[in-house]
Specification:
The chain is an alpha+beta fold and 182 residues long. The chain has a single domain, classed as Nuclear Transport Factor 2, Chain: A, CATH 3.10.450. The protein is 29% helix and 33% strand. Strands 1, 2, 3, 4, 5, 6 and 7 form a 7-stranded mixed sheet that branches. It is globular, with a radius of gyration of 17 Å.
């Protein structure tokens, strides 16, 4: 069965019957909300982010390296995002490709993002996400897959903490002269 834009109504859940455009719209709305958040976002703005998640959701917002300690539930997911925003936020999200599984509930997204990490720009940061929705259209599971070594290196340079002391500056990184992190 092909994954891209699979549109068969035979034995698929309700979500699939509403069409891939609805699922993509939900995902786009989630990412627009995430991308609008900064370290100074209000509790109301963070609560709006949490409203996308089901009561028993499981989220890996940073990467799958945190497989032993995901965020469980909307409040834990909000707390994880709040901590992540202290270090980084997406300045520009570029979706390279996306697909929906035959069950109509799982979306796969390949991205090339531009991040601000503690006042520095990291571009590109390639990332893949797998987002599973429930029948009500809420996020049941969110998994981020990416190599965070470049982010860790920047954090180490700024804070003195981390495992990448004597490595060269990674490709794609530049100093921010003006920006929201400065």
């Amino acid at each position: 069965m092909p994954l891209l834009e699979y549109e068969s109504l035979h034995s698929l859940p309700i979500m699939a019957a509403t069409g891939n455009k609805d699922l993509y719209a939900k995902l786009d709305s989630l990412y627009q909300t995430i991308d609008s958040l900064t370290p100074t976002s209000t509790p109301k703005e963070l609560t709006a982010f949490g409203a996308f998640f089901s009561p028993h959701c499981i989220a890996y917002l940073t990467s799958m390296r945190e497989h032993e300690a995901p965020s469980v539930g909307p409040q834990a997911t909000i707390s994880s995002l709040r901590e992540l925003l202290k270090i980084q936020h997406v300045v520009e999200r570029r979706i390279l490709s996306r697909a929906i599984s035959p069950d109509g509930l799982t979306c796969f997204v390949e991205m090339k993002n531009k991040l601000h990490v503690l006042g520095q720009t990291l571009d590109p940061l390639y990332e893949t996400a797998v987002v599973v929705f429930d029948e009500e259209g809420l996020v049941r599971e969110l998994k981020q897959y990416c190599c965070r070594s470049h982010v860790v290196q920047i954090v180490q340079e700024k804070t003195g903490e981390g495992p990448y002391k004597d490595l060269p500056i990674p490709k794609g990184r530049e100093e921010v002269r003006e920006g929201c992190c400065s």
